[in-house]
Amino acid sequence: MKKGTPSSTAEMVCSWRALAQTLPPDQRILDDPYARGFLGPVRGSLVDGAAALPGLARRAILRRLDQVLQGVVSFVLARHRAIDDLILTTSSDQLVLLGAGYDTRPARLSARLRESLVFEVDHPDTARRKAELAETVYARAEPAPTVPVTIDFARESLEERLVKAGLDNEASTIWVWEGVSMYLAEQAVRDTLGLIARLSGPGSRVVCDVLSDPRRAGLLGSAQRQVLDATMEWVYSEPFLWHCRQDQIAPFFSSCGMAVLEDLGLDELVSRYAQRDAGWWEAAPSLHLVVAKRAGSNF
Fold this sequence. Notes:
Layout: H1 8-20, H2 41-51, H3 55-68, H4 72-89, E1 94-98, H5 105-108, H6 110-113, E2 117-122, H7 124-137, E3 146-150, H8 158-165, E4 173-177, H9 186-198, E5 205-211, H10 222-235, H11 249-255, E6 258-265, H12 266-273, E7 287-294
Parallel strand pairs: 1-2, 1-4, 2-3, 4-5
Antiparallel strand pairs: 5-7, 6-7
């Protein structure tokens, strides 16, 4: 992430949600009518241009983008939907969006989230841009109230910022850590999971995605891996720094004080929400969505 600028990857994944919203309802993995409002002029005009095309052309554009990125788009959309479902079906007192980006859940899931205290945690530059746009984007919505928690992760303590903002470490909490871990060094991932374990009351859950072994064929194989890495580092200034072999995901979480409850590979996750036999959503290995609880707890 370039100093003084909001996250480019946060806007990028928001643009995929906005692009998917141009499809007919029966072809969408999730509904996000607010995503378009958080896009800048370049990505916004591209989405608007796609929306003006016939339905088959819109479908073809999104499918081709997914094929080029080896399933990343479909994973991101299915990941978002799966996290929505977890929030809607899990009783909790608090929701923490770690690296909230342009998350629109406070508006989309407002009925459910009015029952919880919602914390939106992000870097000041991204949080500032979202706050500037939110008043217009949510003009006709009634989003659930949120507590903004801005933090410079290189200089400030996340635990101190959350506690100061009013987080109750004895309450049941859903921690959403979406699209973040792969951009952090391994120690930062360990520290964050350890913090979640310490600040989680009975019934708490963390849901996050994990980039698995990049040496495998597929999503991050050989030349594609090098091109994608270079793009993330030089274009977005957000390089991939951490990955975890699939067979080491559960042990890694365990070493951080968390017990894995569910580990969904990309193919399994996407198949929950899409008609795979139609050849529409493309899937490849190397991405996982993990749900975990504090180790040793009986809830």
